[in-house]
Amino acid sequence: MAPLTIESMAQGDSPLHRVDPRGKVLASFLLVFSAAALPPGDLLGPALHLLLPVTLGAIGGIPFRPLLVRLALVSPFVIAVGIWAPLIERQPVEIGLGLSLSSGWLIFGSILLRFVAVVGALLVLSASTPLADIARSANFFGVPRALTAVTMLVYRYFYLLLGQFKTMLRAFHLRGGARFPPLSLWGAMAGNLLTRTLKRARSVQLAMELRGFTGEFPTPELRRFTGSAVALVVLTVIYTTAVHLFVRGVLPI
Fold first, then answer.
1. In terms of domains, do 69 and 136 share one?
2. Structure confidence by residue, pLDDT tens digits, 157-185
């Protein structure tokens, strides 16, 4: 069975998939902005923000395992940045039950939870909305068309590069090589990979130009906002506002 990709998940049919993509893009942006605005070292706020993409993913019937794999692939970069916080911030903070913890570790945990909440929201957005619809929605909110066109081309080029790399590994293995080439061959393989992908990209460019591509992808006319999109945005605003008020002690529960 072919591996489940983000693109294949985005072609599903669920209440979340049927929401206007502009509503999902705007709700995701609001969630990202809200998570970034939480107080430093706060753990409860990011954890509550994480509930929103988890709930939406469950409504959309999106399998979480492929998303967790992608989340784990980029997590080392965030860990490499956040791990410095315990070394810099060493002031003890009371956490209850007579226990204390360095404020740096609280900041580190907050960074990780924000990362999971923000990237999780973006992954749920990508898994419930085709890339073309996301780009069209971004254009609607004022993002330059040139930027969205470049983003879509880079996205396609990445998979082209990955496909060429897999082909080279398979050819090496079928010719009696090990499962992974030795380090002495990686330089030559990188040069060969660059040459092959540039040739393939040139062929793709010529094909697009022959089909009338002028630098902008044709997009159908946008419809009016649907009630489900408005409801999603309103609920996101209410939820994130309530989380901020609760975390800051303004809204006791």
1. yes
2. 777 777 778 887 887 777 776 667 777 77
Element (H, E) at 191: helix 186-210
Are the CB atoms for 46 and 120 separated by under 8 Å? no
Return the DSSP state at 211.
T
What does R_g of the chain's alpha carbons equal in angstroms? 22
* pLDDT tens digit sequence for 47-81: 999 999 999 999 988 988 888 888 888 888 888 88
The answer to whether the beta carbons of residues 62 and 55 sit under 8 Å apart is no
DSSP of 92-125: EEEEETTEEEEHHHHHHHHHHHHHHHHHHHHHHH
Assess contact for 50 and 163: CB atoms under 8 A: no
Distances (CA, A) of 119 to 31, 90, 124, 125, 192: 10, 28, 9, 10, 33
Residues 6+ away with beta carbon under 8 Å from 201: 157, 160
- 225: in domain: no
- DSSP state for residue 144 in the 8-state scheme: -
The answer as to whether 231 is a domain residue is no
Residue 108, CB-side half-sphere exposure with 13 Å CA sphere: 18
